[in-house]
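thought: user wants a sequence for this fold. calling inverse folding tool.
action: design(structure=
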């Protein structure tokens, strides 16, 4: 088993033991360096599952393993050296510069007040260069565009030197250009990545594996070409789904219709 393999074993979650499950027992395994997408309608449990992986919501049952180590059986600092998260919304009123934001990624590796010296500076600079934000190093974070902020937060996560990177709706609120930039970045990070996405076609194009959730229950897991079909998508999303072959792109593409509209046309 690689140090970056991610395994979830029957993880579930509810606000308390008397409440109904928000996420029912869910299992999957993601090999090191692969990109896993989580898809499903609103309220399917996507963000809940991500919160379990980045240690925000403790699972009611099951466990999460990174490199064979139970993430919830280790200390928060040790877990933060294994898993980093970039969430949907970033605050815009930080009185910090881009370089200072990226430097926050080194906190889990610091001992006391020690800042790591030249070695840590090299890691921070390399993360900013990789995300092409070094030119923004002295800019206040709150003055950046949405796409720039997203890149800075990914740079902060890379400075954390994680084995697993969590991205919660990384294309949310971004225009088409910045969506494409973020997706291209994810493909080339070389990390084990878990991301939630609303756009099923983007997920199928970008991800090595996909987990489909519906009402907190796993419906399918595996490579998109093997698991995604019209019936599964229709059941999970409550729509009529049609899968067309795009010759130019040499791939399948889903189109969607409301079920009542399709019935009215027939």
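)
observation: tool returned 266 residues.
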């Amino acid at each position: 088993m690689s140090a970056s393999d991610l395994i979830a074993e029957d993880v579930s979650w509810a606000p308390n033991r008397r409440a109904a499950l928000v996420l029912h027992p869910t299992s999957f395994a993601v090999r090191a360096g692969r990109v896993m997408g989580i898809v499903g309608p609103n309220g399917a449990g996507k963000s809940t599952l991500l919160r379990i992986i980045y240690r925000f919501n403790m699972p009611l049952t099951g466990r999460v393993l990174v490199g064979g180590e139970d993430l919830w059986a280790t200390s928060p600092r040790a877990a933060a050296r294994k898993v980093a998260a970039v969430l949907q919304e970033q605050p815009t009123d930080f009185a910090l510069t881009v370089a200072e934001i990226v430097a926050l990624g080194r906190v889990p590796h610091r001992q006391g007040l020690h800042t790591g010296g030249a070695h840590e500076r090299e890691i921070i600079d390399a993360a900013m260069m990789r995300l092409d934000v070094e030119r923004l190093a002295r800019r206040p974070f709150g003055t950046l565009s949405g796409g720039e902020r997203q890149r800075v937060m990914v740079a902060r996560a890379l400075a954390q030197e994680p084995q697993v990177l969590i991205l919660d709706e990384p294309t949310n609120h971004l225009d088409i250009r910045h969506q494409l930039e973020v997706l291209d970045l994810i493909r080339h990070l070389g990390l084990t990545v878990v991301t939630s996405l609303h756009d099923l076609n983007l997920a199928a194009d970008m991800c090595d594996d996909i987990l489909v959730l519906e009402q907190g229950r796993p419906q399918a897991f595996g490579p998109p070409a093997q698991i995604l079909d019209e019936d599964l998508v229709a059941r999970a999303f409550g729509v009529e789904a049609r899968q067309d072959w795009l010759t130019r792109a040499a791939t399948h593409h889903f189109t969607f219709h409301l079920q009542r509209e399709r019935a009215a046309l027939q």
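thought: summarizing for user.
answer: Here is the designed sequence. The chain has three domains: 1-82+162-225, 92-161, 229-266.
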